[in-house]
């Protein structure tokens, strides 16, 4: 089972993108889904995640600009990114957790030009 991420691309500073992620096959028991990102030369960092109960968590650097939403039953998670800045340039990976298992997407490139 894989998570399939899409929606990345090239955008000018101040622009918006919406990332989407869906499981290739049904994953039962997902209780958390979210997004990480990795910029060149940097460690992968959590951007935002959401639980099956609807609780959300954001990195300080994206609060007020990014919004995460998702449906654990449908195995989907989205990331609405507004007011993008060059520092947001990275590969964005979606992930999900079900019990002790972690699932990852292949990553989608987001590039923000100044």
Provide tags for this entry.
11 strands, 114 residues
Compute the CA-based radius of gyration: 13 Å
Given the helix and strand composition, which structural class is it?
mainly beta
Question: Could you give the distance between the termini?
Answer: 37 Å
Q: Portion of residues in helices?
A: under 10%
Strand content: over 45%
Give a quick summary of the entry:
The protein is mainly beta and 114 residues long. The protein is 0% helix and 57% strand. β9 and β10 form a beta hairpin.
3D architecture notes:
The protein is mainly beta. It has strands at about 5, 10, 15-25, 30-40, 45-50, 55-60, 65-70, 75-80, 90-100, 100-105, 110-114. The strands form 2 sheets. Strands 2, 4, 5, 6, 9, 10 and 11 form a 7-stranded mixed sheet that branches. A 4-stranded antiparallel sheet has the order 1-3-8-7, with no helix packed on it. The N and C termini lie far apart (about 35 Å).
Topology:
Blueprint: E1 3-6, E2 9-12, E3 17-23, E4 30-38, E5 45-51, E6 56-58, E7 66-71, E8 76-81, E9 90-98, E10 101-104, E11 108-113
Parallel strand pairs: 2-11
Antiparallel strand pairs: 1-3, 3-8, 4-5, 4-9, 5-6, 7-8, 9-10, 9-11
């Amino acid at each position: 089972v894989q998570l399939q991420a899409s929606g990345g691309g090239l955008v000018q500073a101040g622009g918006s993108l919406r990332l989407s992620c869906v499981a290739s096959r049904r994953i039962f028991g997902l209780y958390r889904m979210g997004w990480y990102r990795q910029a060149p030369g940097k460690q992968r960092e959590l951007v935002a995640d959401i639980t099956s109960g609807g609780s959300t968590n954001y990195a300080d650097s994206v609060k007020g600009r990014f919004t995460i939403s998702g449906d654990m039953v449908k195995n989907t998670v989205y990331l609405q990114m507004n007011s993008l800045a060059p520092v947001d340039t990275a590969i964005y990976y979606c992930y999900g957790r079900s019990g002790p298992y972690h699932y990852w997407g292949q990553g989608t490139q987001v590039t923000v030009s100044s």
